[in-house]
Amino acid sequence: MSEEPADDAFHRAARELRPLFRHHTARLVLRAPGSTRSVPSDTAHTARAAVRAATLALLEQDGLGRVHVGWWLEDGELRAAVRDDGPGRLRAGEAVTANVTERVAALGGTLHVDPVPDWGTTVTVTLPLVPAPQPPQHPTDVTPEGLHSLHPRELHVLEQVALGRRNREIAEALGVSESTVKFHVSNILAKLGVTTRGEAAALTRAWER
């Protein structure tokens, strides 16, 4: 898995955010993680996408004076927060897109939206720096119970994989991005204890018999 320094990843996010404020009266305040530690590129990319989506949503509000964006590395996690001083009435579904929510979940992360009326809204994304360890399994030892560990969206992706479809075809069928499909496939393989799509498909077909 490729990695990038946390501060470099944050400054890339900052470069993407600054143009959004060029014609806006609100001021952008940035707080870099201040760490020499590297983070997985998928984690950094997802954090940047979530921060950008949240910032765009916050900027749609009236009466905004400041937007604060900060990243923190602590306890094996990357925490990215976007906070404003606006009306504090933004709902969770309005703060980020479904695509971003799926990407955060695919990495085992969490996303919280905390609006406080007349004080502002805080959007916090927490992503693990190391994937949760999976118990070692041999494909022949996996039972249908393994399906219970999959989320509904992962089950839908697995059905498509079992049909022999590639990521682009699955993305089109489910109405998500190809990168989201990749995240789901990676999680599915880990949860089922297999290493290839073919093994996952074979298990699925065996369970259906």
Structural write-up:
By secondary structure, the protein is an alpha+beta fold. It has helices at residues 6-17, 41-59, 92-95, 98-106, 152-162, 167-174, 178-192, 197-208, and strands spanning 3-5, 27-31, 38-40, 66-74, 77-84, 110-116, 120-128. Helix 6 crosses helix 7. The protein is elongated and about 60 Å long. Mean pLDDT is 85; it is low at 134-143.
The level 1 CATH classification of the largest domain is Alpha Beta
Strand tally, please?
A: 7
Tell me roughly what share of residues is in helical segments. Answer: 40-55%
Alpha-beta classification? alpha+beta
The CATH fourth-level homologous superfamily of the largest domain: Histidine kinase-like ATPase, C-terminal domain
Largest sheet: 5 strands, mixed
Brief account:
This is HTH luxR-type domain-containing protein. This protein has helices at 6-17, 41-59, 92-95, 98-106, 152-162, 167-174, 178-192, 197-208; strands spanning 3-5, 27-31, 38-40, 66-74, 77-84, 110-116, 120-128.
Fill in the keyword field for this structure:
7 strands, elongated, five-stranded mixed beta sheet, 8 helices, 43% helix, Heat Shock Protein 90, single chain, 209 residues
